[in-house]
Specification:
Largest interface: A-C, 47 and 47 residues
Number of strands of chain A: 16
Helix content of chain A: 10-25%
Strand order of the largest sheet of chain A: 5-3-13-12-11-10
Largest sheet of chain A: 6 strands, mixed
Shape of chain A: globular
Order of helices and strands of chain A: EEEEHEEHEHEEEEEHEEHEEH
Oligomer: homotetramer
Chain lengths: ~375, ~375, ~375, ~375
């Protein structure tokens, strides 16, 4: 039985139009690559591995040659976002963004540095500082096996491509848990109308968060009715949200998009649990800061609107688009993630789509029929 | 026609139990005082005033004698929260929290300082730094009249009392706008079960934010169907949320509650608009830091839970309680605020309760009947 | 006996060249206006007033028509910087920067709003949010008299002009205390060499901080030897530092200048005392963001340098220039402030210049000879 | 020729008394372990390795069983401090603090996780998140050899002990550069008088920062006179400062100590260069938060002082003690680091002690004589 994205079942989040792919890759140039690592363990499931890597590039070129402005927001900080200091200080994204399993970030960092210096040995002079972040997949994956290899990371980085993004149990999402269902990778996008700049906002989420009782889909508290299919252990998990836009935003502006990602999570039922790492990173492809300028300053393009000026208001539409895209990306992750058995026989059940649609219909939320 | 709170119509937000009053004053000791300033202008409405002051005290005593731990969170910073630096640095609330109209914060600050030094002249030695914050009521109130007087501020401060809190068009809420309806003051509370400490969380909001098309009540997008009753001008407004709890939380802990208030706003449809000041302040009455200690350090009580320890998990329930209380406080503000005509004949319409309930019922959201 | 600036005595801070005026007004367009309020009290000094207002404009025009990028840094937060939320969120300075006495900020805010709406009534639509900050002058000034009037504030705003800046006991500096000597207003500037952009950095400080035992002038611990001339009460005070530059810096870049101001204070002996408000604000005149754009985005100029690029490194020189300018501005404030008697006969003694120079000479620090 | 610490030559920084060891280990329970990794390369120096690991434990036990409050401050963010999100959110240090070479943090993280789960397999449940930070030693060490092994990291962790701390070219300091001289590890401490609590503050720094022209020792600009002995390349480097205290400080309080560490750096000539990672972490051993509590809250001890209370003022003395200890720790790192030749024959010269002392004497800064 193939699982499909939420919109294919008539589930529509918000009212703003999506991009062509309804994915972060609707933002021109953005590339995503994933490597899934699955290994069977002993008969009892010991040593089973369900993990992987997801890598996001802001453009077609090498990120340290074509740097873009970026910003972060930590809604809850029980998680790692290596690279955050540099982004907050310089406002620059100059590496791929690498998502993986919590205990594997050391290995992923190491491998990404090797990949960068392999592509371009001169970068070693400047101590490349890749962005690496994580959620914990130890319920399904035997993390003490340290299953991730350099090649797994290289695989995700080399696979990065434009176009549709695989969702669900793939890449870093392979072993994740969301609202006590199986979680994983989800994506979505929104496009602003021409008189608001026509900009695109795309979101990619790695969902590993949420209490079942809080789960809302399109405003309907389905978690209060879908009370079975629970895992043996509830874990508070984490959630990574990456936001891309082609709107020409400065570092302090794109940071504001990152903050809105948390509002999209809230609509799905996140209360940013104590042991969760709700970590958001947003970047704009609207300016590419080359490294071959011989001047101390360069021209960049910046959004401008505020009380008193006459420019068309674009920030608020961009904010609302971000909230919608993140909400839908989480829903897509739930719709696309299949039931998975892993370490020690632990099982995470998929969101039951039929029952979910029935609940949405009963609450008048299904688009047409 | 008297307006009633949402729960009295069967509208229930979330599933956690409220305190006895379903108000911020369910947190023992918390007091609220309000002063409403209404003045009629000329026949055309010029010079009409619809403003006021709402004051919150963390306890029964003088706040600078009975200091409590506090923390803030700025979801969007197009607003003023005088006192924020000291709270972030020292983690202390040592004044009443005063809410009023944007252009009146200078006057309110001045008057609050006078009130403090009047109660206790010795405080002048230490430059009392009251907490004063605002939303903009200039659509309904002629702010250039600078209508607020010292006595109005004294009135709110002196009126502070335990017990039920008046909601809607009262105090600082007199002239506010919310989702293009009439907004104002709202409050709500939640109580944790005994095995989670039995703590109470209360919220008071001053609602002056939101786009109609985003309004959700209990997850139902009523704003997409209630498209009439719009004001002549949409303003992005602001929202102040004050969170109180008796859980013994340290400054860095209570700051986390403040951050969750934004998630409650998100559930009602906030996307934290560009020109809005979403400003949150949380405090804990669980420790009262006296000023007469002769030791350099004192014993305080602190919440403790985290991975690896055995203490009952209370942070996540406190976070979820905060989200629910803030969401319901916003809904209460909408239910309780009546249609108001003000400056230049401008009108903000009240949320039409009948039509709202009908929509909720159609979406299966009304508790019984 | 006229007091002179430090350099006129051969005291040179750092090694970078100053601008023509060695003042914040070396940054083209920056204007400073001050109003000094002195009132004699009763025979015992009760009711004596020693206070004032200092206002800084980033350019020649109305700040809300010619907005510039700004950033802040709070080294210690026991102080108020009204307007900080908006600057952190939007990165814009759109008002004059008003410095005054702690208890007078309500009045100063009120008066500045009136001045703004008086200049341009349309601004009332957008709730003008002026930047107002403070240090506590209550040792010399009877703050409970609430001596500041609207006209005093208007006076400082209307007096704003390019050119030399009066230092010492003037404007907001009238009643301040620094390292237990008389403090006040100080200013200084630095100019980068042409191959580093030739940019100017200017600093203006309101000095009301410091323990005598920590005072260093040009690295010499003069405070350990100048142990007399102490006031009756030591107060921890505060320090405001305003940094201006014509380097075209974005909000997140100019914020970094603000952070360096604290390092300049450190060199004079600041340890950012517990009860002090070390508040820094930096702005760049390198971009003026007009309000009449009809496009959602505009071209701006931004500094660019980092590992791997070829542009001339300018950030580090700008940082070092900021540190030097702030250090020298503090020293100028001490050199220019005269002994002052105020409230209740309280006295703050001026730094004894002769003895200071003697100490510097003995430590080989005097330029000439 | 053995190099000695600054005080042994009569160089005294500030005026506050040191602890018995003048080291971070003067704070009872604090342990430091170091592993130095030196490997000779080819005849031309290619492949030469000069690197290592320094590990700091807050107490005698396992840090995740005996958690302490911690806080961080990033003066300039071009560096990594893995673990910062959790410290900012929870305020807890629950791992050793591991310092190493920039490109080795992935490996160091990985190895530290293995060490933790090796000590205590149950911690894998909770995704141990060690604190790992870095400075770049690539001028002397061939970082692309990825020379650090798990055993090197284990070595530093296992070697952790109370008592004197080795300084200079040791552990993570093996290959570092400071003010264009050889840098490395330095430490110092201060003790408050009994009437200020008698608390101890200790600092350990990893110095890899600074422009020669800015170097000040005890206020004397020796860098302007010591203009030879320059390396072939200037690198902006970084600086890590770790502050320990036994004063019972809460997370928001100890964070304030971290911020003061930057002021100590400033006194030595740091202007927090653009490409530098000035990263500070402070912790208090005054409360140990066990993991076996069965209550949701616990008693902790907290510093208390502020305007209006009667407790003895301890924050400001603690701040000044931090500034002094950090300044002296940097000076010790310079005094103790010997000339080192490494990768590709690159050389970093040691601070010439004789000439330095001569300069200090000429400026009247030597204690004895």
């Amino acid at each position: 039985l193939e699982r499909k994205r939420a919109r294919e079942y008539g589930v529509t989040i918000g009212w703003r139009p999506t991009g062509a792919l309804n994915a972060i890759t609707d933002v021109a140039g953005v590339r995503v690559g994933q490597a899934t690592v699955i290994r069977e363990g002993g008969p009892d499931g010991s040593g089973s591995v369900r993990t992987g890597v997801t890598a996001i590039f802001p453009g077609d070129g090498l990120p340290w040659h074509e740097r873009v402005y970026a910003g972060t927001h930590i809604l809850n900080g029980y998680g790692e976002l290596i690279g955050i200091n540099q982004i907050q200080e310089w406002g620059l994204l100059q590496s791929p963004i690498v998502l993986t399993s919590s205990l594997a970030i050391g290995k992923a960092y190491d491998a990404t540095v090797k990949w960068i210096t392999g592509q371009d040995p001169e970068t070693a002079e400047d101590a490349p500082m890749p962005v690496v972040t994580e959620c914990d997949d130890s319920f399904l994956s035997d993390v003490l096996e340290y299953p991730l290899s350099d090649d797994d990371v290289f695989g995700a980085l080399d696979a990065a491509a434009r176009g549709p993004v695989e969702e669900g149990c793939v890449g870093a999402g392979t072993g994740m848990q969301c609202f006590d269902f199986k979680g994983g990778i989800g994506t979505s996008s929104r496009v602003l109308p021409p008189d608001r700049g026509g900009y695109t906002v795309g979101a990619l989420v790695l969902t590993n968060f949420g209490d079942r009782a809080e789960l809302r889909i399109d405003g309907v508290q389905v978690g209060l009715e879908l009370t079975d299919l629970m895992p043996e252990n509830h874990s508070e998990g984490s959630c990574i949200a990456v936001i891309a836009t082609d709107a020409p935003m400065l570092p302090h502006q794109v940071r504001r998009l990152a903050a809105r990602a948390g509002l999209g999570l809230a609509r799905t039922g996140s209360t940013a649990g104590n042991g969760s790492g709700e970590q958001m990173l947003a970047f704009s492809t609207g300016n590419v800061l080359a490294v071959d300028s011989t001047e101390p300053s360069v021209d960049v393009r910046a959004l401008l609107d505020g009380p008193g000026d006459r420019s068309p208001a674009v920030f608020s539409p961009l904010f609302a688009a971000t909230v919608e895209a993140v909400e839908e990306a989480v829903v897509n992750a739930l719709f696309m993630s299949a039931t998975t058995r892993g370490r020690d026989g632990n099982v995470l059940h998929a969101l039951p789509i039929d029952r979910t649609l029935e609940l949405l219909e009963r609450h008048g939320r299904l688009a047409s029929a």
